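Example 3.2
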Amino acid sequence: MLPDDQLGDTRELHLAWLDFYRRTLERKLDGLSEEELRTSRLPSGWTPLELLKHLVFMERRWLRWGFAGEPFPDPWGDSGGIDDGPWRLEDGDTLEGLLQELRAGGERSRQVVETGELGNRAAAGGRFGVGEEGPTLNWILFHVLQEYARHVGQLDIARELADGVTGE
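Structure, written as tokens:
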């Protein structure tokens, strides 16, 4: 179900859309076999499970490491330690494990957003260096939302190619 179209508060609107995209992502992955989760149907080569891992790390990089400045030992763990590197999985990565990380990350993102001011700039020392002017929380939230929208749309195509399932 789409977020309430009567929401006027920007912070609540951001959070509602983030929740919507996380739920949609879960629905699109539900019912795929282990083989389908780990098989690419697209020329670019990414798999649905790799896309899930990318979104877990993307949200973490922008909101927790980026805006809040929380340290992470491997912020580029979805791409082999390289910004914009190809997505990859570790041997222990599973659908349920990555979904748990997605949900826990969503809860932490909610805390960051609820306690931050939308006009505040990202903390120095995390994703953004000391002396570097980071983007505002509002900008980061729009960026994270467009990442979710783009990738969930791509997953919709991959799912349709896999088994014909379409829709929200």
